Amino acid sequence: MSKLTHLDADGRASMVDVTDKDTTFREAVVRGRVRMQPETLKLIIEGGHKKGDVLTVARIAGIQAAKRTHELIPLCHPLMLTGIKVELTPNEADSCVDIEARCKVSGQTGVEMEALTAASVAGLTIYDMCKAVDRGMTIDAIHLVEKKGGKSGHWQLGED
Amino acid sequence: MSKLTHLDADGRASMVDVTDKDTTFREAVVRGRVRMQPETLKLIIEGGHKKGDVLTVARIAGIQAAKRTHELIPLCHPLMLTGIKVELTPNEADSCVDIEARCKVSGQTGVEMEALTAASVAGLTIYDMCKAVDRGMTIDAIHLVEKKGGKSGHWQLGED
Amino acid sequence: MSKLTHLDADGRASMVDVTDKDTTFREAVVRGRVRMQPETLKLIIEGGHKKGDVLTVARIAGIQAAKRTHELIPLCHPLMLTGIKVELTPNEADSCVDIEARCKVSGQTGVEMEALTAASVAGLTIYDMCKAVDRGMTIDAIHLVEKKGGKSGHWQLGED
Amino acid sequence: MSKLTHLDADGRASMVDVTDKDTTFREAVVRGRVRMQPETLKLIIEGGHKKGDVLTVARIAGIQAAKRTHELIPLCHPLMLTGIKVELTPNEADSCVDIEARCKVSGQTGVEMEALTAASVAGLTIYDMCKAVDRGMTIDAIHLVEKKGGKSGHWQLGED
Amino acid sequence: MSKLTHLDADGRASMVDVTDKDTTFREAVVRGRVRMQPETLKLIIEGGHKKGDVLTVARIAGIQAAKRTHELIPLCHPLMLTGIKVELTPNEADSCVDIEARCKVSGQTGVEMEALTAASVAGLTIYDMCKAVDRGMTIDAIHLVEKKGGKSGHWQLGED
Amino acid sequence: MSKLTHLDADGRASMVDVTDKDTTFREAVVRGRVRMQPETLKLIIEGGHKKGDVLTVARIAGIQAAKRTHELIPLCHPLMLTGIKVELTPNEADSCVDIEARCKVSGQTGVEMEALTAASVAGLTIYDMCKAVDRGMTIDAIHLVEKKGGKSGHWQLGED
């Protein structure tokens, strides 16, 4: 039967022991979005045409956060990420910024938490930089879309 | 005209100078949720009847993350939070865990980023602890619901 | 003659260069305890029957601290721990909480500092959560009990 | 009746809300020791006659750890420490290094956790630097000896 | 006679106790530069005309580093900076990027270390982003140019 | 044509993906200096004859900073350094302290940023400890002098 791997036999939180897992290539892709007023998005895009600073700062913040995932998420293992990519795309049709974060590692445990953390912190940073004009922004639909490597192999959203 | 306060006159990202702002009591409340399969929620609740560890770990992670907001969000100021509260409530009707984070400070700048960070990291931690049984969980609708203090006074969602 | 490996030939503090050491499986086990008033222990145990929060929070804090050992201990190397386990057992006979921390890695240097740090911070967290009712608690007898791997092989307390 | 302030009415771990506490001068003094073989202590002392590096590095590590207490201890508040002092004294009679840590702040919450953390990490660092010659060292008797400020006023060990 | 304030009467490193110092407004301005090949500077400037990313990332890194000064510099006090500004100006005449960092706080100790750290890390980040084309870059002349507040009042370079 | 590897095809800052790079032995050596008044250097040297604390603290700070390079420099990869060495040599002829930092790793990316960070933070710490007597000190000429390993092989300053 399926169970929560972070709880031991007595139901106590514990770190999964990955000592005996194989070191394989791992990759995870996460998507999400920050919903906002059309005027807010316009300010970001216009800034973007000139300097792109809101999205640059948010992208950098997401990359940096991925590296600190094991400090933020109590039962995550430290990992030596070999690649972190955060893409932020203004989406005028849905009045949001689309977030995509991708992490890679050769390691004993998956990198979905790293990609989820990168996407979340990129979204939080967009909120921070635009909050003076739009308090009602929402960080939405942060979810895993693809995962490679490890015992479970290749997983894509919608396949389960 | 409204503008993005984190970009200076030349459109470059910068930290807002709050040196001359008054020190006042500030509070922010943020809500969000982690959507999941009903079976996943059931495992959390059953664990909860015994030890409640998933929610306890996530609550602790959220509290700790709030204290590190200024490290994660590049242009946030360091703050001496006097209160951080994270509530996580299983919601069977909507098959999710409801998140509420509340931060307080006596300071020169608001604490909405701290509450947003607490809520997001609490959600990420729930994902981490349950991902072995449910990869499709989604962190959703992280948004500010109330804000007190500072020049803008009392703000509540829906009032704008 | 035996010497302090963290001091170089001139007696200056330095990090041991482990570049040429073999990568082997390493494990360390540390024990210690937090002594307290019987009433304090009773409060922890009773809480434990309901939610176990003091010990859960302390266990999480110990696990997280192990991951940050190289930041806290100036001459420790960064390590990619594959397993961290912290067990906290109320001991009514001795009016204390017994601490056991176990760390694992496949690496070029031992993990005793990581296990010692986990045990110490778990103990400090117990102190923090109970200090309102018992200021006189003592963190006691934090010591290595077993060590595997590396050039020195298997070591157990009492064998020297 | 006395209770654990870090557990709320439902027994869930939470941060104590200090928003309404007065800002007063606070001070805490903690003592402890690292027990070791007489030969180990001799190496430290001899090093000390030349450069004192073991004790200097441990003192620095303790000071730095005090500043990060709120990151290590999950429910501690961030604090702006105005003074941190760590004294390490070789004690040949008891074959140990005596540790004393003292922290000061003007704030809304006490600094005993900061002093306890400083003392513990100083002890761990002594262990780290001497472990190549003495694996059996023990970090012992880390305890609060004095506390000033706040609602509880002046407290000294033995007075309760 | 002048003396090193971070060494106590016995010559041991210690944190200056600022408990009794007045809380006053403090400001510090630091300058420095990263010298490089003219072709390297040209790449930065051309990038700058489009997106300015090298300088944006370096500016963000400098701001973030200022907030972590007390973690990096062992005897620095934690501070609640109210303003951090990092300006990076391409200087074709001298084939370098000029760095200026300015920090502000209302506190009991000066902010020159925060401004020095911001300037240094901004310079290191420029090096990182351009090192693939120019390994010989030099971070040069990081120095304090102005300091306000505290017992020593207003100081400007060249006045001593 | 040479290009800035940290900017992608669209000129956006990104982390270089090193997933497919070989794991090889890497080493980097960096030099720099802190210029100061002859009297300041004399105080350091005299302290050094007794306890050497300024240089010991600075050396420790440099070693610790190297381990945190990936947190400070936004697009740096996390690395498991196997050796960090910081040498600080008083230089009376030039009225400065000469800094040399050397880092080693077996990894997929070079360690020059780690050595540059170690040297810079060692220099900043010297400034901090002596600033009470000499505000005009300058951190100067932080530069790479040698680099081994990776695709580019052995590089020495002056060879390009």
TrEMBL record, chains A, B, C, D, E, F:
UniProt keywords, alphabetically: Lyase, Molybdenum cofactor biosynthesis
Record EC number: 4.6.1.17
Catalyzed reaction equations: (8S)-3',8-cyclo-7,8-dihydroguanosine 5'-triphosphate = cyclic pyranopterin phosphate + diphosphate
Pathway: Cofactor biosynthesis; molybdopterin biosynthesis
CDD domains: MoaC_PE
One example GO MF annotation: cyclic pyranopterin monophosphate synthase activity
Molybdopterin cofactor biosynthesis C (MoaC) domain span: 15-150
Catalytic site: 128
Positions of substrate binding: 75-77, 113-114
Protein family membership: Belongs to the MoaC family.
Function, as annotated: Catalyzes the conversion of (8S)-3',8-cyclo-7,8-dihydroguanosine 5'-triphosphate to cyclic pyranopterin monophosphate (cPMP).
This protein's name: Cyclic pyranopterin monophosphate synthase
Species for this entry: Marinobacterium lutimaris
